[in-house]
Amino acid sequence: MPELDATSLLLNGFSKVMLQENRITGLLFLIGIGINSLPLLGFAILGLLAGTIFAVLAGYGRRQINAGTYGYNGVLVGIACGLFITNMPAAALLTIFFGALSSLITRLWPGYGLPALTAPFCIMGLTAYCISLLFGLANPGGAGIAASQLDPAAILFKGIAQVMFQNNIATGILFSLGLAANGIPVLYAILGSAIGSLVASPFIDAGTLNAGTYGFNGALCGIALGSGEGKTPVRKAVAVLGAVAFSSVLSYLFIQGSIPPLTMPFVISTWAFLPLKSGKRKTK
């Protein structure tokens, strides 16, 4: 049985948010969050530790723990709690609780032939959001920044930064460099961010597009479906483009329904188009 490696489980936990297992990637992701918001970085680490410690105490496989499998959803849970909840002690407690639960859900994920991706985070993140509303702890958020014209750099790089809910171009550049350490995923991330935003552009104001709101789910779809082999190159290309476009539509519907989309559009779109890429039917 391999020994636990604190460096690996920490950095791989960050890198696995974008479906990578690379300590250099994870380090750049961690730094990217830190240059935008040290408090959110603290919540991200707290969520990762909650999920990972739960996995250790439950006796889950150490290879998977070192790979970040039980930490990456906790990273997103922590950031979401830090954003949604104004009371910091309450946010910390919910991060620990839901971070641990995200690890359990990852372990018990039934799948039905579909990968968990960030679904455990989506479940826990929405629950945390509902609790924040129920107990009057919700962060009201700020008004969007008005813009009269599109900023391509902001659209592309904030679209990647917003995968971890960071509204910062420099963060997006660091995230992109982290992905580049793995080769081709960075190209699919940029493509997904661009196409997702392009699909939304006829209906969405420039400020919202510049914030990356309609790019990050597309970036994740691009990484998930662009990586690896498809049954044919054409099926793979259609799956990537279809999932990215569909994620943008879903993001719009969630936002119009006053529901934070989180990474749900990515998860649903990837599930929907994964059989097209692989040529395999979903199993029950």
Structure in words:
The protein is an all-alpha fold. The protein has two domains: 6-134, Ammonium transporter AmtB like domains (Ammonium transporter fold, Orthogonal Bundle), CATH 1.10.3430; 152-278, Ammonium transporter fold. Helices cover 68% and strands 0% of the residues. It is built from 14 helices and no strands. It has helices at residues 6-15, 23-36, 38-57, 62-66, 72-84, 88-108, 119-134, 152-161, 169-180, 185-200, 206-210, 216-226, 233-256, 264-278. 54% of the residues are buried. The model has no long low-confidence stretch (mean pLDDT 94).
Features:
284 residues; mainly alpha; Ammonium transporter fold; 2 domains; 14 helices; 0% strand
Please summarize the sheet with the most strands: none
Distance between the termini: 32 Å
Q: Count of DSSP helices?
A: 14
Helix content: 55-70%
The H-level CATH homologous superfamily of the largest domain, spelled out, is Ammonium transporter AmtB like domains
Please tell me how large the radius of gyration is.
18 Å
Q: Provide the succession of SSEs.
A: HHHHHHHHHHHHHH
- What is the domain total for the residues? 2
Q: Any low-confidence stretches, pLDDT <50, length ≥5? A: none
CATH topology of the largest domain: Ammonium transporter fold
CATH architecture call of the largest domain:
Orthogonal Bundle
SS-based class = mainly alpha
What is the β-strand count? 0
Strand content: under 5%
CATH class division of the largest domain: Mainly Alpha
Shape: globular
Mean pLDDT: 94
